[in-house]
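Severity: low
Component: inverse-folding endpoint
Summary: output formatting inconsistent between runs
Steps to reproduce: submit the following structure tokens with default settings.
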């Protein structure tokens, strides 16, 4: 199973990505987790990432690709799939991912698009209680604005490829998972 998760902050990408990865036995690759690990480790890339993460701005495409590309290729080769959480986030990243997928025969089978109203998303982000700098209400609103500007166009891109599965993310976690599995199970059997 090769899945890209596409959703605004607070829609449940991480939670649902973990559930999808467990169900289909593939790695969950979270760009946010990778970025936070790099930052916490104080690596040179981590130092570059810190400002973007703290402000809620998108990490530049070249840095994202540097950190993600090898992991995606390895996951697809070793397990036959992946669940990408937080990548791609821009059209340039999506096009680069598509090129990598074509070259390595590891193209995504589906894009799960989790959708919810902005007020639901802001409440979730601010209420996570994870003590993350990017979870304040002000940064949450900014992250939603950044998402709308840069990431939402990916919905059209992937819709054009015919692989978008739209899910109402405002529903309870278990109901969202069941809707996702109902859509993905036929692809796993194919």
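Observed output (run 2 of 3):
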């Amino acid at each position: 199973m090769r899945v890209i998760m596409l959703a605004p902050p607070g829609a449940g990408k991480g939670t649902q990505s973990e559930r999808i990865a467990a169900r289909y036995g593939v790695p969950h690759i979270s760009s946010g987790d990778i970025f936070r690990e790099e930052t916490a480790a104080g690596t040179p890339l981590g130092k570059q990432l810190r400002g973007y993460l703290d402000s809620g701005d998108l990490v530049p495409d070249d840095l994202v690709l540097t950190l993600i590309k090898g992991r995606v290729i390895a996951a697809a080769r070793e397990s036959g799939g992946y669940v990408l959480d937080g990548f791609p986030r821009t059209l340039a990243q999506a096009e680069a991912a598509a090129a990598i997928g074509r070259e390595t025969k590891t193209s995504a089978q589906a894009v799960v698009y989790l959708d919810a109203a902005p007020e639901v998303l802001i409440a979730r982000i601010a209420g996570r209680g994870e003590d993350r700098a990017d979870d304040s209400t002000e940064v949450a609103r900014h992250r939603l604005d950044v998402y709308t500007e840069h990431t939402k166009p990916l919905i059209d891109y992937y819709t054009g490829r015919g692989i978008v599965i739209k899910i109402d993310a405002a529903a309870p976690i278990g109901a969202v998972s069941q809707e996702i599995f109902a859509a993905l199970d036929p692809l796993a059997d194919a």
